[in-house]
C-alpha cells in the first residue's frame, strides 16, 4: 500500500513536470494558450508544440517546409513570416476551422501555392502573402474565404489576375496589390468585391484598364493607380465608383488628347480628393495637369463625346451590362504585349497594414505638382497590433505597445507604413518610423511561470530520491 502511494506521488510530480513542457528555446503560457518560438534559427517547425495551442509565433526563423501535422486545428493565430519557406503541403491547414489570422509574408522563395492551400478556412479574416516571390495565383485559391477582410499580396511578381479570382471574398475590405508586375485589369478581375473599401494598385506596370474593371466596387473609397504606365483611362471606368473619395493617378504617362476627354469630364465632376494628372502629350500640353486643362485645349475633338453625353446615349444601364463579354471599344495596347519583364525593376514597396479606425480619417489635398518619385532601398518588416476584434487587450499580450503602433497607418492618404511615395510622389513623412521586428518578450507573469517550471525540473531528482527513501524507511519499519 505504501509502495502504491509512493508511486502515485512520483507520478503526480512527473505530471506537474509534463504540464510545463514546451519546445526547447520557446516560451509557452496559457490564457490564451500561446507558443512563442521566434528568432531561434529553427530549420523546421520545432517538435513538442503543445496540442490545443491557440497562438503560435514562429517568425524570423529559417523554416523551409510546412507539412500536415505541424500544427493543431485549434490554432487561431499563426505567424510564420520572415522564414525560408519554399513549400507548403496542400493539406497543412486542413480542418483549421478556428484559424483567424495567417501570416506567411516575407518568405521570398515561396514561388507558388496549391489551389487547396487555404480551403476550409472559413473564419480567416487576415491573410498575409506579401513579399513571397509569387509569380501567379492559381484558380480558386481563395475559394470559401467569405470572412476574409484583409488580403496582403503586395511586393510579389504577379503579372496577371484571372477573372473571378476574388469572387468569394464578399467581406474583403482591404486589398493590397501594389509593387507587383500587373499590366492589365479586365472586366471581371474584381467581381464579387462589393464590400471593398481600399484598393492599392500603385507601383505596377498597368497599361490598360477595362472600362468595367471596377463595376462591382460600389463601396470603394480609396483607389491608388499612381506610378504605372497608363496613357489613358476611360471616365466610364471611374463613374461606377459611387463611394470614391481618394484617387491617385499621378506618375503615369498620360496622353491628354481626344481619348482623355472622358477622364477630363469625369474629373471636373468628381468632388473627392485627387492627385495631379500630369500630361506628357501632346507637346503643347506637356507638363500641365489634366484637371486644369480647358475645353478649348481639345480643338480637334469636336466629334468626341464627353462622359456625360456618352453615358446618356450609349451607356444607360451600367448595372445591367452583360458581364460575360468584354467591351469592344477599348482594347489593350498592341505595342507592348504581355512582356512586363523588360520593364524597369524597382525595390519592392513595403507592406501597408489595416488602420485601427477608418471612419473619420481626414486626408490632405494632393498637390498638383508632378515630382519624380524616389525609391529608397528595401525596408524591413514591422509588427502591427494583431488582436481579435471586439476583445480588450489581454495582460499577457505578446507584442508591446510600441510594436503595435509601428505597423498601423492612420489615414487613407497614407498608403502603408512603409510606402515611400506620398500622393504627389514626394517622399512620405512617416507617421510612425518603421523599426525592425524584435524578439517577443513574455510579460512578467509568463517569465515567472517559466522559472517555476525550471525549478520543478531541478527539484525532480530530489523528489524522486525523497520518495524512494520514504518507501525504504516504510519497508524497514514493517519488518
From TrEMBL:
It is found in: Cell membrane; Cell projection; Membrane raft; Membrane. Keywords: Cell membrane, Cell projection, Glycoprotein, Leucine-rich repeat, Lipoprotein, Membrane, Receptor, Repeat, Signal, Transmembrane, Transmembrane helix. It holds the Pfam family LRR_8. Residues 296-452 are annotated as: Disordered. Its main location: membrane. GO terms for cellular component: cell projection; membrane raft; perikaryon; plasma membrane; side of membrane. It comes from the Eukaryota. Residues 391-410 have a biased composition (Basic and acidic residues). InterPro entries: Leu-rich_rpt, Leu-rich_rpt_typical-subtyp, LRR_dom_sf, LRR_TM_domain-containing. Residues 1-21 form the signal peptide. The chain crosses the membrane at residues 458-478. It is a lipid-anchor. Residues 377-390 have a biased composition (Basic residues). Belongs to the Nogo receptor family. This is Reticulon 4 receptor-like 1b. It comes from Electrophorus electricus.
Amino acid at each position: 500500500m505504501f509502495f502504491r502511494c509512493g508511486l502515485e506521488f512520483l507520478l503526480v510530480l512527473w505530471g506537474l513536470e509534463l504540464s510545463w513542457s514546451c519546445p526547447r528555446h520557446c516560451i509557452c503560457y496559457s490564457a490564451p494558450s500561446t507558443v512563442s518560438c521566434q528568432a531561434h534559427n529553427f530549420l523546421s517547425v520545432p517538435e513538442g508544440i503543445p496540442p490545443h495551442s491557440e497562438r503560435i509565433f514562429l517568425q524570423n526563423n529559417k523554416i523551409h517546409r510546412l507539412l500536415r501535422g505541424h500544427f493543431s486545428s485549434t490554432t487561431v493565430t499563426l505567424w510564420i513570416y520572415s522564414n525560408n519557406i519554399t513549400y507548403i503541403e496542400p493539406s497543412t491547414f486542413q480542418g483549421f476551422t478556428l484559424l483567424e489570422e495567417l501570416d506567411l509574408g516575407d518568405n521570398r522563395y515561396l514561388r507558388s501555392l496549391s489551389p487547396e492551400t487555404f480551403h476550409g478556412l472559413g473564419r480567416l479574416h487576415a491573410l498575409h502573402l506579401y513579399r513571397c516571390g509569387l509569380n501567379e495565383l492559381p484558380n480558386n485559391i481563395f475559394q470559401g474565404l467569405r470572412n476574409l477582410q484583409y488580403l496582403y499580396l503586395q511586393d510579389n511578381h504577379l503579372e496577371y489576375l484571372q477573372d473571378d479570382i476574388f469572387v468569394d471574398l464578399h467581406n474583403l475590405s482591404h486589398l493590397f496589390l501594389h509593387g507587383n508586375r500587373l499590366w492589365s485589369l479586365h472586366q471581371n478581375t474584381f467581381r464579387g468585391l462589393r464590400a471593398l473599401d481600399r484598393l492599392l494598385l500603385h507601383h505596377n506596370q498597368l497599361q490598360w484598364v477595362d472600362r468595367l474593371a471596377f463595376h462591382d466596387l460600389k463601396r470603394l473609397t480609396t483607389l491608388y493607380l499612381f506610378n504605372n504606365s497608363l496613357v489613358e483611362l476611360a471616365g466610364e471606368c471611374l463613374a461606377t465608383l459611387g463611394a470614391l473619395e481618394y484617387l491617385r493617378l499621378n506618375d503615369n504617362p498620360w496622353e491628354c488628347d481626344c481619348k482623355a476627354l472622358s477622364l477630363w469630364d469625369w474629373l471636373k465632376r468628381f468632388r473627392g480628393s485627387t492627385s495631379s494628372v500630369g500630361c506628357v502629350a501632346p507637346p503643347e500640353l506637356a507638363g500641365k495637369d489634366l484637371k486644369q486643362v480647358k475645353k478649348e485645349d481639345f480643338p480637334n475633338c469636336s466629334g468626341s463625346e464627353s462622359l456625360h453625353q456618352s453615358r446618356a446615349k450609349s451607356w444607360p444601364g451600367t448595372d445591367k451590362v452583360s458581364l460575360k463579354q468584354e467591351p469592344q471599344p477599348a482594347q489593350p495596347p498592341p505595342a507592348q504585349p504581355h512582356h512586363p519583364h523588360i520593364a524597369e525593376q524597382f525595390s519592392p514597396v513595403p507592406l501597408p497594414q489595416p488602420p485601427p479606425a477608418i471612419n473619420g480619417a481626414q486626408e490632405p489635398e494632393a498637390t498638383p505638382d508632378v515630382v519624380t518619385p524616389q525609391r529608397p532601398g528595401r525596408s524591413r518588416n514591422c509588427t502591427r497590433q494583431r488582436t481579435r476584434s471586439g476583445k480588450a487587450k489581454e495582460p499577457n499580450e505578446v507584442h508591446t505597445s510600441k510594436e503595435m503602433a509601428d505597423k498601423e497607418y492612420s489615414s487613407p492618404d497614407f498608403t502603408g507604413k512603409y510606402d515611400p511615395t506620398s500622393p504627389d510622389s514626394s517622399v512620405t513623412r512617416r507617421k510612425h518610423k518603421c523599426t525592425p521586428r524584435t524578439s517577443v518578450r513574455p510579460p512578467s507573469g509568463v517569465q515567472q511561470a517559466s522559472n517555476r517550471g525550471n525549478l520543478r525540473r531541478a527539484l525532480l531528482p530530489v523528489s524522486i530520491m525523497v520518495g524512494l527513501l520514504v518507501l525504504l524507511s516504510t519497508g524497514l519499519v514493517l519488518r
